[in-house]
Amino acid sequence: MTTKLNADRIRRAVPGDVPACARVVHDWVTQTDWMPDELPVEELAKLISDAFDDREMWVAGDPVDCYMSVDPAQNKIGALYCGRRGQGIGKRFVDKAKEGRDFLCLTTHRPNTSAQRFYRREGFEVTAEEPPVPPDTVPVYRMEWRA
């Protein structure tokens, strides 16, 4: 039985979490009307797995339904997907990413206005418009935070 404590606990991801992380991303894509469904969950899992050793990856949920990936070399949040919204988990992920840093950047899809509002509340500002990076096809905004 899942307890609220386990469902809300953020923990460092382990390799066995990769399929669940891929499912979280895939579910978000399929539920988002403006995002093309271009990659099957198996390809998403391969991309996440290939980056695993070079990223700080965090998960929440039991089973995992929220996932964040941070590239420490670039101080960049590369992914933040949460199957549950409005429960403060996204904010806790961003707070985790900010720990020990005085700068963070990320990209968010231009049509994703709710994510942009969220990141603005967390102190991020739009600094540029960028073309999509394959396999993405949707243009993005670059956002930055400084302590």
Strand element count: 7
Strand content: 25-35%
Instruction: Give the rounded overall mean pLDDT.
Output: 92
- Shape, per Cα inertia axes: globular
Helix percent band: 25-40%
Flag low-confidence runs.
Answer: none
Helical/strand content category: alpha+beta
Order of helices and strands: HEHHEEEHEHEE
Biggest pleated sheet:
7 strands, mixed
**Distance separating the two termini:** 40 Å
Q: What strand order characterises the main sheet?
A: 1-2-3-4-5-7-6
Tally of contiguous helical segments: 5
Specify Rg, calculated over alpha carbons: 15 Å
Give your account of this protein's structure:
The chain is of the alpha+beta class and 147 residues long. The chain has 5 helices and 7 strands; from the N terminus they run αβααβββαβαββ. It has helices spanning 4-8, 18-31, 41-51, 89-98, 113-121, and strands at 10-12, 56-61, 64-71, 76-82, 103-109, 125-130, 140-146. The protein has a 7-stranded mixed sheet, with helices on both faces. Helix 4 links the parallel strand 4 and strand 5. The longest helix has 14 residues, at 18-31. The protein is globular and about 35 Å long.
Task: Write a brief caption for the model.
This protein is of the alpha+beta class and 147 residues long. It has helices spanning 4-8, 18-31, 41-51, 89-98, 113-121; strands spanning 10-12, 56-61, 64-71, 76-82, 103-109, 125-130, 140-146.
